[in-house]
Amino acid sequence: MNIPTDLQYTKDHEWIRREDDLAVLGITDFAQGELGDIVFVEFPDVGATFKQGEVFGTVEAVKTVADLFMPVAGEVVEVNSGLEDAPEQVNSDPYGLGWMVKVRIADSSQLDDLMGASEYKELVA
Amino acid sequence: MAADGLRRTPLYDRHVALGAKMVGFGGFEMPVQYTGINDEHRAVRSAAGIFDVSHMGEFRLAGPGSLAFLQRVTINDVATLEVGQAQYSAMCYSDGGLVDDLLVYRRSDHYLLVVNAANIDQDFEWLQSNAAADYTLENISDQVALLAVQGPASRGIVAQVLGAELDTLEFYHCRETRVHGRDLLVSRTGYSGELGFELYTDPETAPRLWDDLLSAGEAVGLQPAGLGARDTLRLEMKYCLYGQDITAQTNPIEAGLGWITKLDKGKFIGSQALTRVKEEGPRRRLVAFVMQERAIPRPGYTILAGDAPVGRVTSGTQSPTLNQGIGLGYVDRPFAKAGSGLEIEIRGKRARAQVVKPPLVKGTSLLA
C-alpha cells in the first residue's frame, strides 16, 4: 500500500498536501482499495467554505458510497473536474490525477491535528 | 472457521492467493472482487467469469412423498418438472410473504433444492416445521461445492474441462457427468443473464475443478469474478436478491414473480393469501429504473412522484454496462408502468429516474 511520506493524513483516510496557503486533498490508496471501483465524485461548489470535519462531498463506488470530510477549515478554490469523465483515476492514481479539491486554509494550526505517514501507516496496518 | 465466526468455502485459499478482497456474506467469508467489479462484470458480459458460489445451501429430498411435499411448500408447479430439469421457485409463509427463493432440480431418484446462504438454517427449519409424510429431507450444504461459469464463452470452457458435449444441454436443464473420478452435476443456470453453467461438485474436487476451468478459460478471457460483479450483473437483469428485493414482508405477486406463482396447481402454503393479492391487484410493484442524471440509487432511498413519497429503493448500483445509475424498488401501482417518471431522494437532493421494462441490459447471450 502506497503512503507517501510528504503528505499528511486523517483518520477518515484522506490525504492533504500543503502548497503555501493552499491544501490539495484526496483519498488515500487504502481508501480507494476499500471502496473499489469509483464511478462518481460529488464535489462542492468553488467558493464554498467548510469547517474542519464537515462533509464537503461524496465518493460513489459501484458497491458503496462514502462521505468526504474536510481535514482543515477553508474555502474551496478548485475542484478536479478531470474526475468527471475519469473517476477511475481515484483508483489508479489516488495521490496524483485522483486529487479532489484544493482549499485555501483558514487556520494553518489545524494542520497540527493531522497524522504523518508513519502514524497513518499504523492506523491502516 | 475463521475467528469472526464466518465460514469458508473449499476455495478460500484460491481466493486469497488471487488477491481477492474478502467480505462476510450470508455467514461466509466470500470474495467480493479480485481485479475490480467493473472489470469482472465486463469479462462476464463479453467473455466469461468464474464464481465460487459454494456458500449457497443444498437440500436433498427423496422418497415417494417428495412431490406432494414440494407442491405444498413451493409456489411453482413441481408436477411439470421432468427428470433433468430445473425450476426457479419460492417458498412463502401463509400470509404470502417470502421465506426464500430457490431452485428445484428433479433428478432421477430425488429432488435437489438450492437455497440462499443466509437462509440455510431458517429454510431447513421452516421445511421441517411443515413436515408431511413419506420422504426424507437432508441438508447436504456442507457436502456440496458450487462453481458458476457465466458468459458467452462459458460453454466452450466448461465443455473442454468436463470433456462433454454441452450444445444440447438446454436452458434450465442439468446433466450428470464425472470429473477427476467424482460425480458432478452440470446445470445450465445462473444469475448473470448470460449463457452460463453451474457445477455442483464435492469440496475435495472443487479446487482442482476451479484450477482446470481457469486455465482452460485463460485464452478466451475467463476471469475470476466476485460477489460485487454477481450483484451488478443480476441487477442489470432485474433478478431479485433475497433480503433486499424480496423478504418476508414482500409477496411474489408484487415482486413480479407472478410467473412462478401457480395458483391453479392446488393448495400450497400461502396460496390463499396470494390468490387474494392476485384478485385485488397488488398495492405496489417492484420496478426497475434507470437514472436520468448522474446519481446512484442505494437501498433505503425514498422514491418520489411529484412531491409525494411513492416507494423505496431495494437495490441500486452504477450499471457497468450502461454507465448509468440503475435500481430496483417498490412503488405504488399507479407509478409502476414502464416510462413513468420518478425521483430518487439522494442525500437531500432529488435525481430523476425512469421506470423501464426489464431486463435493463438487453441482447445478452442467455439463450445462446
Overview of the structural elements:
The complex is a heterodimer of chains A (125) and B (368). Chain A has helices at residues 29-35, 82-85, 89-92, 117-124, and strands at 8-9, 14-19, 22-27, 38-42, 49-50, 55-61, 65-69, 74-79, 101-105. With 125 residues, chain A is of the alpha+beta class. In chain A, the strands form two sheets. Chain A has a six-stranded antiparallel beta sheet. Chain A has a three-stranded antiparallel beta sheet with strand order 4-6-7. The longest helix of chain A is centred in the last third of the chain and has 8 residues, at 117-124. In chain A, 42% of the residues are buried. The model of chain A has no long low-confidence stretch (mean pLDDT 95). Chain B is an alpha+beta fold and 368 residues long. Chain B has helices spanning 12-17, 37-46, 66-73, 120-129, 154-162, 206-217, 227-236, 271-280, and strands at residues 21-25, 28-33, 48-52, 57-62, 85-92, 98-106, 111-115, 136-139, 145-150, 174-179, 182-187, 196-201, 222-224, 284-291, 302-305, 308-319, 324-332, 341-346, 349-356. In chain B, strand 18 (341-346) and strand 19 form a beta hairpin. The relative contact order of chain B is 0.15. Classes of the chains: A alpha+beta (125), B alpha+beta (368). Chain A binds chain B through residues 33, 36-37, 39-40, 58, 60, 62-63, 65, 91, and chain B through 21, 32-33, 36-39, 228, 231-232, 294-296, 298, 317-318, 320, 347.
